[in-house]
Every structure is written in C-alpha cells, then in structure tokens.
C-alpha cells in the first residue's frame, strides 16, 4: 500500500509536523498571539491570527534549524506587512542563534494587492535578511511544492537561497500565468492551458534550467530526505559566484532566442528526447540536466 503523504495537499503546519523530527517544532508568534495584519480589517477582508505564516525552531535529523512555512490556504500565501516581518524576524534571530540552517517552505502568489506597498517593502526586507544569513555562513534551504506555487516576490526570494528543492508538480516563476495573460493577452500565454503552465513554470522545467538544485516527487518524506541532503550546502556570496551565475543566465538567454516552447528550449540546452520530459517522473528527470546547468 502506498503511504506517501502529499506535500501539496498538506497545510503549512502539517508539512512542518511531517518534515521535521517528531515533536521538535517550537512556534514563535503562534495563532494564540494574534499578531495580525492591521490593513485587512480596514478593507473589510478577513484576517488570520498568524497572518498566513508559521515560524519557529525545530530539528531536522537531529540538527537544530529554523523554519518558516507559508499557508497557501490564506490569501494564497500572499506577503503582507506582518507576514513579511515574521520572516525577517526569523532570519535576524538566525544571525544571533546560529542554527545549522534556515528552511523556508514557500507557497505564495507574491505580494498581497490589499497591502501592496507594505508587502513590496516586506519582500525587499526578506531578501536583505536572507542574504545576510547566507553571508554569515548559515545555509538557507527553500522547499517549493505547494498547490499555489511560488510566484512574484517570493519567487525572487526563493532564488536567493543557497539550495532550492522543488517537486515535479511544484511551480516557480516571477509572474504567474494569469498575470502574464492579463498583461499581454491570451495569445502570449493561455493560463487555462495547464500543460503549458507546467512546461513553463513547473518543477521539471526549473530543474532542467538549473533554477532548482533537487527535484523530488510530491511526497513529504522525499522533501525531508532532500532537505537533509542540503544541510551544510552553504554557497559563499562572492563576486566570482555572481559572475558565473550571470554567465549561465546569458547562455540560457541566447539558447532561448526563437524558442517557441519549453520543449524547444530543453532540446537546445542539450536535453535528450526533450519531448518526453512532461511524461517522466521526478526520478527520471534527475539525470537529464545538462552539465552546463548544474550549479557549481
């Protein structure tokens, strides 16, 4: 009998309970503290007592870690002032307490339009705090596999991390399909074409392009195993590393000129039998990434 627990179908706290060592999670500012957005009530929008994110400390395979998990069921995991402040506070406390890693279970459509300016500022502060943690030598590991994906400002935050794990049904991008369609028309991107959406933003695509370091099945245990493998994978923030990343992006940009679809891009990047990728499992996709796209 298959007893795999779907990462996508779990809530934020269910993911925490299953991913980390049993009973080790200690939450800071839990719902009982009622730290809520001051803006939503003024707009007549229901608020959440935790503002859609759970933060705290836990243990992963015995290692002390800090963790944040976004709740996709509340406003799509959107970032507002309090939500962002909790993430920033977690990273700042990591600088003081020196855990072995900080893990972010990201599920977000980006900034809440209800408090857009505050949310945009919050995302920029999260990025700054994350990079300060990385600069101190503490690895930041991001897990992406929620039903809402990881878009907008949180998509940028995720790519600022040392290590990114994504499921084959996870999604990661700057602009979501509906945003692209609204801005440029259905001829540019049909958000109702689910196969197109996953070919363009899905986990397989992100892994093959080198945006994700590991790809796993939609299984909480697989995410736990991947997170354990990522412990100690701190990537120093250096000029040489930045230049190498820019070179990889330039190569990818050149390869994408004239490509009509992700399948065409995969083929140009050296993926054998690229047309078969959408039907492959996460395990089958792992061995397909071109050497040039494997992070140094």
What are the main properties of this structure?
alpha/beta, disordered C terminus, globular, seven-stranded mixed sheet, 2-enoyl-CoA Hydratase, Chain A, domain 1, 296 residues
Span between termini: 39 Å
Q: Remind me, CATH topology of the domain at 12-172 and 212-234?
A: 2-enoyl-CoA Hydratase, Chain A, domain 1
Mind describing the biggest β-sheet?
Answer: 7 strands, mixed
Radius of gyration: 19 Å
Global structural class: alpha/beta
User: What is the CATH class of the domain at 12-172 and 212-234?
Assistant: Alpha Beta
Following the backbone from N to C, one meets helices and strands in this order, namely HEEEHEHEHEHHHEHHHH
What fraction strand?
5-15%
Shape: globular
Low-confidence stretches: 291-296
CATH homology-level superfamily of the domain at 12-172 and 212-234: 2-enoyl-CoA Hydratase, Chain A, domain 1
Number of strands: 7
Calculate the mean pLDDT score and round it.
Answer: 92
In spatial order, strands of the major sheet run 1-2-3-4-5-6-7
Q: How many helix segments?
A: 11
